[in-house]
Amino acid sequence: MAFPIHIPTFRVVQPLGEFYVAVLPAEILLQVTYSHPLKILGFSDTGEYELKGHQRKLVKDRLKAIGRYIDTVEAAFPNSIILAANYREDGELEDNPNFRWGVAFNSENGSVGTLSIPSADKLAAIVDGQHRLYGFKEASFHNRLQMPLLCSIYLDLPNPFQAYLFATINYNQKPVDKSQSYELYGFNLEEEPPDVWSPEKTAVFLCRKLNTDPTSALKDHIIIAAQEVAEGKARSLRRDWAVSTATVVEGLLRLFSSNPKRDRDLMHRREIDKGRDRKLLTFAPHQDKSPLRYYYLESNDLLIYTIAKNYFNAVDRVLWRNADRSFIRKTVGIQALFEVLRSICSEAIEAKDVSEEYFSAKLKKCGEINFADDFFEASGRGRQRIRNAIELKLGIRNIEEFEESDRLTYERICDLS
């Protein structure tokens, strides 16, 4: 595509002002756009300061992750990149008609027209979507630069309004709940052979099975809700306790993937009917030391499921009885229990015994820990303390590893006197 560029556009009129919807390839956008990171230009004697720009700093790891996603056969960017055209990088309005972006309409009062971009000069500030766009620089497949991207383009939008628009968009957006995302992510499990399931889809499948299997202690206790509302949701459903889908899915994931998103992007470089398979990850440049990684790559989901189910059945038998108000059945407790499973599952496999009886015998010595003690709390620190106490009792950890101020409490809780 050579300059000048003339492409179809559609006018949208909203209270802030009108903008134009158009489609441009990533390659062109990378030529004509720039990003304005927020900077402090200087301080006055009174301590006041002047700001310039509005964008967050570019995060290299995020750009690389987006680049890997762009390389996949399922890459999609349906959200528009928002641009403010006709301002130079120094913040001044471009008034030379030979460089200014413009729109001509097909009729006097029409909404359909033609957007003209005279040159490759960088005259469009990115208001929103900089990581999406600059992620194309990290893509391995050069032809991805031809991918068309939806753009919403403001002409002559002053810098203060650019900052206002950026802040409004990013402040008012509500992220999708993780539990709901995981459920939606695995919606088509039945339509795909298990061999092509990414770690996330595999974990969603295992989570659903744990929640529906009559022989699972987690049956009907996993809720599609955020962690902080799962316990309230349990009360409304007249259940004694509940945990969110996200808590269980993420706990399962850590058993066989240290970087699920990277794994998914590597697998999705191939289409399902052209060789996509979990074993592709065997040749990945990184080495994943998750304890059940081998069994995931071999599609031995039954073994992974059996370990998780029998472990939590043992937890139910040994630790959850008469523990209605205990932290061990709250989100922090279940997160800690997954971390303990991650520490001991390799030992169970080496012993060739992943039965409920094996895990019950293993956890028996933890049965006297009082998880309702105030030392445990509903926080990240509380989760770590629950894990510490269990692993200390199991002999995985040593009391000398903990902060001196906490040792007496661990000795009391774990009855190490």
Question: Main traits of this protein?
Answer:
single chain, 417 residues, alpha/beta, 2 domains, two-stranded antiparallel sheet, 15% strand, elongated
Explain this structure to me?
The protein is an alpha/beta fold. The protein has two domains: 5-172, no CATH class; 178-413, no CATH class. Helix content is 40%, strand content 15%. The chain is built from 15 helices and twelve strands. It has helices at 26-32, 60-70, 130-134, 159-172, 178-185, 199-212, 227-236, 245-256, 260-267, 293-297, 301-318, 331-350, 356-363, 380-394, 404-413, and strands spanning 5-14, 17-25, 33-34, 39-43, 49-52, 81-85, 102-105, 112-117, 124-128, 148-155, 222-223, 243-244. The protein has an eight-stranded mixed β-sheet. α5 packs across α8 and α6 (199-212) packs across α11. The radius of gyration is 27 Å and the shape is elongated. The protein starts with a strand and ends with a helix.
Helix/strand layout:
Elements: E1 5-14, E2 17-25, H1 26-32, E3 33-34, E4 39-43, E5 49-52, H2 60-70, E6 81-85, E7 102-105, E8 112-117, E9 124-128, H3 130-134, E10 148-155, H4 159-172, H5 178-185, H6 199-212, E11 222-223, H7 227-236, E12 243-244, H8 245-256, H9 260-267, H10 293-297, H11 301-318, H12 331-350, H13 356-363, H14 380-394, H15 404-413
Parallel strand pairs: 3-9, 6-10, 11-12
Antiparallel strand pairs: 1-2, 1-8, 2-10, 4-5, 6-9, 7-8
In short:
This protein has 417 residues and is α/β, with parallel strands linked by helices. The chain has helices at residues 26-32, 60-70, 130-134, 159-172, 178-185, 199-212, 227-236, 245-256, 260-267, 293-297, 301-318, 331-350, 356-363, 380-394, 404-413, and strands at 5-14, 17-25, 33-34, 39-43, 49-52, 81-85, 102-105, 112-117, 124-128, 148-155, 222-223, 243-244.
